User: Fold this.
Amino acid sequence: MGLAYKVCDECGELVEEVGRDRPRFYIHGYEQILPALEHKLSGLHVGEKFCVTLKPGEAFGRYEERLCQRVPRWRFPSDVSLVVGARLELGIDDHGLGIDYGTVLFCIKEVGADEVVVDGNHPLAGRELTYRGEIVEVRVASYRELEAMGPQTLPHGLRL
Assistant:
């Protein structure tokens, strides 16, 4: 499915715009876009317009203060450039974040002499988002497109 759309937050601020000349394509039913948005787009046809408002819980989640942390500067490797707005993937060893394992993408919010403020929330967390747009293409996904998503998406028994 191909979409052209604008996304605005609850204050009307433009968050993203995707034009008809370069639509955003996704394979419907595989959660390649926000599941709540995908659900609302089900059954629409080429040329149909849509306006879908998603609450934070349907979009990128509530903003969680616990994911905004002050970290001693010495905990960052010396070769890491600490610049406000930079994004870093950091390993989690459960420093009160309630996350037991893995990595989280953090955004640097402040850089001080002794500490760095990092935020593990998605940049759009806590925001209500409205998608206004149009369906510009609907077609069956190709075998190659499905294969690129992994073997679980291929019809049973098919292999390249």
Q: What stands out?
A: The first helix runs from residue 35 to 41.
